[in-house]
Amino acid sequence: MSMNDTPRGERMHIAFFGRRNAGKSSLVNAVTNQQMSIVSEVRGTTTDPVVKSMELLPLGPVVIIDTPGFDDEGALGELRVQKTREILRRTDVAVLVADMAYGLTDSDRELMRLFSEQDTPCILAWNKCDLVKPSLQENTTEKDAGSAPDEGGIAEQISVSALTGENVDELKNTIARIGKLAEAKRERALISDLIRPMDLVILVIPIDFAAPKGRLILPQVQVIRDALDHGARAMCVRESELAETLEKLDEKPVLVITDSQAFRAVDRIVPDDIPLTSFSILMARYKGALKVQLKGIRALKELKDGDRVLISEGCTHHRQCGDIGTVKLPAWIREYSGKDLIFETSSGLSFPEDLQQYAVIVHCGACMLNEKEVAARNKRAAEQGVPITNYGMTIAEVNGILDRALRPLPAEDLV
């Protein structure tokens, strides 16, 4: 990914679902105007999800996902269906591709039920309309789609042909319209509601052996950009230069934002009358997870010897000596709790189905995950009765400064 690319966590996720041989891959290729997926007459050609980041006009930067057939069979088929269910958890807009000649199948209706459960808006795309007479087209859509909104929350339905291109542009416009509606419902501020034009914001960014060489991590870049977009001034310093920087300033910063790993040192340096928080806490708010994960922080005080703690990161990276997820957080939590604990980790898009073995989950700020995936993880934890919290909140709590770290945020975000 180049510096100017929109990260996947900030892109609308558009996924195509349906039974085998309904023409999902052909329709994906037609919508994207490129050979993104392999197309064959053989049922089940798509065996793994095909994922591509691209610009889909008129919507903008998106992630397009082509999924395996949901009616796949056998042991491998079950694994592919499970992978499709995982894709659904991070899907912002679903396109259910149905073969117009066949009508809706049981697997299609099962998908509709899952869309409804996940509160995922869905477009029902009747593919291969070029092979069906107009009179039969009308009969099929009336018979099968007439009950679809009640069964699966279908937002729109449209007849298309991946082969001839009929109504493909209309399908793209429909995806864009529904995608923008979904995006508007979940739009949240990062720091724009905490600052005003010309405010000074100090960002504390440790540069150590674990920092990516030659670049900043995504939350740091996003906060800088949000500050610039709203006319504020962002000053970046290491924690080692923070005290001298504050002494030399002619004005008081309205906010200091630190990497959570430096919370303890930064708290000692920054006067109490200057608001202080962390990138991770801001990301939890931005992803709509703050309230849920704030409740989960109480579980740290209730840990017992032998409890399992899951440390989960939304990205994948090479683990180094001093890694926060595998080294620093476990050490801090053990010191805070005084208990003999068992720590396990997950990373990237891998997140355990069964969470009940864990006493608490400590999740990263999820900058690489979209909001839908974050919400799905929080929901799964809640359904299984497992508390989930956040890196920044945890580090602030173990250092006794959580109240201070939350003070800059509006009260309505916390309760």
Characteristic key phrases:
415 residues; Rossmann fold; 37% helix; alpha/beta; 3 domains
Layout of helices and strands:
Layout: E1 12-17, H1 24-32, E2 50-56, E3 60-66, H2 74-88, E4 93-99, H3 106-117, E5 122-127, H4 134-145, H5 148-152, E6 154-159, H6 168-185, E7 200-204, H7 218-229, E8 233-237, H8 239-248, E9 255-258, H9 263-269, E10 276-278, H10 279-286, H11 290-296, E11 308-312, H12 324-337, E12 342-346, E13 360-363, H13 371-383, E14 388-390, H14 391-398, H15 402-406
Helix pairs in contact: 12-14
- CATH fold-level label of the largest domain: Rossmann fold
Structural category is alpha/beta
Element-level helix/strand string: EHEEHEHEHHEHEHEHEHEHHEHEEHEHH
Give the strand order of the largest sheet, numbering strands 1, 2, ... along the chain: 2-3-1-4-5-6
Percent of residues in helical segments? Answer: 25-40%
CATH class of the largest domain: Alpha Beta
For CATH, the homologous superfamily of the largest domain is named as: P-loop containing nucleotide triphosphate hydrolases
Question: Care to describe what's here?
Answer:
With 415 residues, the chain is α/β, with parallel strands linked by helices. The chain has 3 domains: 8-185, Rossmann fold; 192-283, Rossmann fold (3-Layer(aba) Sandwich), CATH 3.40.50.11420; 289-398, Rossmann fold (3-Layer(aba) Sandwich). Helix content is 37%, strand content 18%. The chain is built from 15 helices and 14 strands. The chain has helices spanning 24-32, 74-88, 106-117, 134-145, 148-152, 168-185, 218-229, 239-248, 263-269, 279-286, 290-296, 324-337, 371-383, 391-398, 402-406; strands spanning 12-17, 50-56, 60-66, 93-99, 122-127, 154-159, 200-204, 233-237, 255-258, 276-278, 308-312, 342-346, 360-363, 388-390. Strands 2-3-1-4-5-6 form a 6-stranded mixed sheet, sandwiched between helices. Strand 2 (50-56) and strand 3 (60-66) form a beta hairpin. Helix 12 (324-337) packs parallel to helix 14. The protein is globular. Mean pLDDT is 87; it is low at 42-46 and 145-152.
